[in-house]
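Before relying on records like the one below, remember that each one covers exactly one chain. Contacts with other chains, cofactors or solvent are not represented anywhere in the record.
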Amino acid sequence: MFYLQVEITNYKQLKKIIPEVIEPLSREIAQIVSTSGGEPHPSLRGLYCFYSTFRETSFTVINTTFKIYTLLSDLSDKLYGFSIIVSDSSDSDENLEKKLRDLLYQIPLENSIWLLEDRKNIFEKHVFIKENKGLKQIYEQKEETPGTEERLKRFCRREAHIESIIDAVNAIGKPLAEKAILHISGPLHLGKGYNLDEALKSICINETVPLLFLSSSLSENPLDPFIWSINSEIEENVSRYLDIGELDQWRVMSSELKLFKNSWNAEQCSDYINKDFIYLYSLYIKAYIKIRKENSLLPIIICKNMNSWKSPSLQILNNVFKKFVKTDGLLPICTSSDLRWINSLSELKTRTIHFKPYSIDDLQKRIESAFFDLHLKDDEIFSLYKSCNGLTIPMFHALISYQETGVLSGIGNPSE
């Protein structure tokens, strides 16, 4: 597991003094992490988790780190200082928390990035590091060669699927079309997310209104996928798009949004608090849809990894879909590796684009496109295909390993 700790000095005090700065900042950090595939730690404030399943995750963590660093630096005149810590620790939560606290007490420089642990020297490939009073300070991100990232896009790219996603979104989004959920399905690790991202680049070209992204959460809080999807730019404009009665409710209740973040547990969260948030979120969605349409944009909502969503979260999402898909034209694009979650959405039409593992012929073409400098024999390609069960991402990393070591070895049968 990779970890990213964002420590804002005197955070609690600042929330009281300048909530208009700190609350949007917290949401923006959460949004950056969420869109990068990370999740807030269920119990440690300011700590974010990234599953270290594949190599490119370390690159993503570093990219995310520097995005947050830039965001905080731009607000440095309003803050008392900040520190960011990156780690690939394998410790328990208790030990990890202790190590983070110990490092924070030792850091000699505010507004800086630090490396706690890098057991396999993964992070050091992406950054420049210097010793500062016995600690490792990250001071610059390396300019990555076009290699890995560009190869990954070429290896995962499926033109027919990208075109199908674009066509489906345009068809569902027509004013008189029957409204539906677009479901992008298929086994894990086939590159569904990469192809969706490529399709969205074409669908949302030159857009100035942010899209709405929701993803599963490690937390037991069923509200978390929704809480962390709130974008400050949209939230600041919600009141402009509400009816008088809704506006009164929003003004009274919107200040309570901060109660939902990092403060939920099963014993303390009563039903009425849940209902309050769901009502507030429905007003947020209503405004989001109107803002998008006002700018002649489709009101798309991206919901990732639906197979890993908890049932209470799915029930809330189902209610959002029922309320806004047919009547207001909300256009959900959902990714998952199975169909079980669709059972809760029986009242809504679903249009599915399915991803299957590459065939041997597909794999050969992908190797020619992304690894044109590698020359593999037919039996080596077959061995690679068999050892990785035809799954795109594991095959990609086996090829990267072969490129680096000269040894072609499968990585087994991944469970995720």
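The radius of gyration is 22 Å.
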